[in-house]
Amino acid sequence: MNRNLILILTVVAVVGGYFFYVSLTQPEYDIRIFAGRFIGYDGSTLTLNGIFESESDPVPDSFQATQDFTFRVDESTVFEKEIIAWPPDENLKEQRKLSSGSLEDLKSLFGNAVYIKAAFPTSLYKKRDQAVASHLIYRVFAVSPSQPVSIPIQ
User: Fold this and answer.
1) Cβ atoms of 69 and 92 closer than 8 Å
2) Which of 85, 133, 137, 141 sits CB 3.0–4.6 Å from 118 for a disulfide?
3) Residue with more model confidence, 46 or 125
4) How far is residue 104 CA from its own chain's centroid?
5) pLDDT exceeds cutoff 60 at 146
6) Domain boundaries, the chain
7) Are residues 101 and 79 in contact, defined by beta-carbon separation less than 8 angstroms?
């Protein structure tokens, strides 16, 4: 009986030691931002095409490519809307106007060129599937009809 108990405790110690070693040697990246184009929504789930960002750590290779990312928003998500006057006009005092936003307002802009920067309370490195944004800034360009936009084709 004591022999079986010793064997079981040895196996538990070896397996536990392995997982402890692996958790200490695997890098943990603090990736809490995703920024990109607004390409879809379904209820409170948003989809962007863009890149992951980190304020402190380098982003691992698997997170560097442009990709689609789907996440949720909830009642605690803070929405901010930034309207950017385009083309820039020296006579305007405010080129950018920041105001509070909402999920419904954001959905109403779907199909326009909307850029979103979403912040998350925890790292997305290991929990991409469960992501719920805590703060979301969406940027909209307001094109001035009095100043036609000319974009050179290269």
Assistant:
1) no
2) 133
3) 46
4) 19
5) no
6) 29-143
7) yes
The β-bridge relationship of strands 78-86 and 135-143 is parallel
- Residue 125 pLDDT class (50, 70, 90 cuts): confident
Burial of 133 (0-12, 13-18, 19+ CB in 10 A): buried
Q: Assess contact for 38 and 110: CB atoms under 8 A.
A: yes
Q: Which residues are CB-neighbours of 144 under 8 A, at least 6 positions away?
A: 85, 86, 87, 89
Chain-centroid distance, C-alpha 131: 9
Q: How far apart are CA 10 and CA 79, in angstroms?
A: 53
Q: Which amino acid is at 34?
A: F
Ranges of beta strands (E only) in the chain are: 33-42, 45-53, 67-72, 78-86, 96-100, 114-119, 135-143
Q: Give the mean pLDDT of 37-61.
A: 90
More confident residue, 52 or 90: 52
Residue 149: which pLDDT band, with cuts at 50, 70 and 90?
Answer: very low
